[in-house]
Amino acid sequence: MRFLQLSAILFILLMLTSIPVYAAGSSTGANTDRDSTSDTSEDVEGRAEVSGRLAVARTRIEEIRDAVSVKRTELRREFSETNCEDEESLTRLQRIRCRIAQGKDYIAPENTIPEACRRLSDGETDKKVNPVACIALYKKLNSDGCYDLGGRDRVVCLKKAAGIVKDKLSDEPLSERPAKARKYLVTLLYDLQERIESLIEEDKLSPEDGAVLIDKIVEIKESIMGGATRVEVKRMLQELRTEWRSLVSEAESIKEEKDE
Amino acid sequence: MSKLIWVVIIIALLIIGVFFFFNTENENDDPANADTTEPSEATIDGSQTVPTTTLDTSDDVFNEMDDALNSLE
Questions:
Q1: What is the DSSP string of B1-64?
Q2: pLDDT value, residue A127
Q3: In this model, does residue A158 exceed pLDDT 70?
Q4: CA distance B35 to chain A (A)
């Protein structure tokens, strides 16, 4: 009997001393249910504000899509019977507009030289640059399907096409670094071009704006492959980034809202 | 008296068990303790490396170009 009494007293004492320990654990973050389920008036107001903003954004998206769809139809009508590779009667911008207009129906004739490789010339001497390396780079990118990949696989694929075997470009041998950097820059510009084409296909970006940007991208790629200096390339990329922000950022945000 | 010692030992073990149970549960709940190690992948030269960018956004692409620019002559 005495043993039972002592046991009971000991058990009660131990239970009493263990309760504060558990309580301390709960208040320091172990139990977050209360925070996540409580519904204050601020939460309700916040949700109403967000849904209001979403409704406005959706209306804007519909407006943009309708306008872009009309422009695409007009452009398609304009270039429906045109040979997009006709260099004599079409400027580079017109050829790009033509390809965009024909969209998925456009099939480049066999052995078509990529637009960025057609008029390569040394910026200083104006001497013609052999387009073989440029054409080979495009072939490699397409055969490896780099732009069908996502995430890190795409980065690895682009670097591989540019001949970069190390983790960082700065780890490559000094003598090979500039040539590899040029090729890598071209692959990244091609990446931007692919993004523009996707946005146009999804009726999120005007085909006219897209064509202007792609024309600019092609011009930069020509300069890079033609041997433009770092300062020149930097200036061109800054201009492109500014134009990108004014023309593409809104279209990209449509994409993000849809994805969310 | 020996029974009392056994009772004290068992209860002490129970308390230690309860303490470790809650401690482990808290650690599992804390996302800061989660394993965030990126999966490594082999590059073309066979070395294990993780690209620093994923080119998810156009900003990523522009930033990557800025980095590549530094290697131009």
A1: -HHHHHHHHHHHHHHHHHHHHHHHHHHHH-GGGS--PPPPEE-TTS-EE--S----SHHHHHHH
A2: 73
A3: yes
A4: 19
Task: Give me the domain span that covers residue B65.
Answer: 2-34+41-69
Ranges of each domain in chain A: 109-259
Give the minimum alpha-carbon distance from B34 to chain A in angstroms, rounded to a whole number.
15
- Three-class SS state of A121: strand
What angle separates helix B58-69 from helix A177-201, to the nearest 10 degrees?
160
* Residue from the list B30, B50, B72 with its beta carbon closest to the beta carbon of A230: B72
- Check CB contact under 8 Å for A22 and B22: yes
Say which residue the tokens 């407006």 belong to.
Answer: A63
**Given B4, B15, B68, which is nearest A184 (Cβ)?**
B68
Chain A residues lying within 8 Å of B28, measured CB to CB: none
| Paired tokens of A153 | 């696989």
**Under 8 Å between Cβ of B72 and A172:** no
> From the CA of A41, how many Å to the nearest CA of chain B?
28
Do the chains contact at B25 and A11, CB–CB below 8 Å? Answer: no
Cβ proximity of A216 and A240 under 8 Å: yes
Q: What's the confidence (pLDDT) of residue A246?
A: 92
Name the minimum distance, in Å, from the CA of B5 to any CA of chain A: 10
Please report the DSSP string for A68-97 in residue order: HHHHHHHHHHHHTT--TT-TTT--HHHHHH
The pLDDT value given to residue A15 = 58
State the pTM of this model: 0.67
CB B4 within 8 A of CB A2: no
CB contact under 8 A, B71 and A18: no
Bridge partners, residue B62, by sequence: none
Matching residue, tokens 């104006």: A126
Domain count, chain B: 1
Read off the amino acid at residue A8: A
Per the CB < 8 Å rule, is B65 touching A185? yes
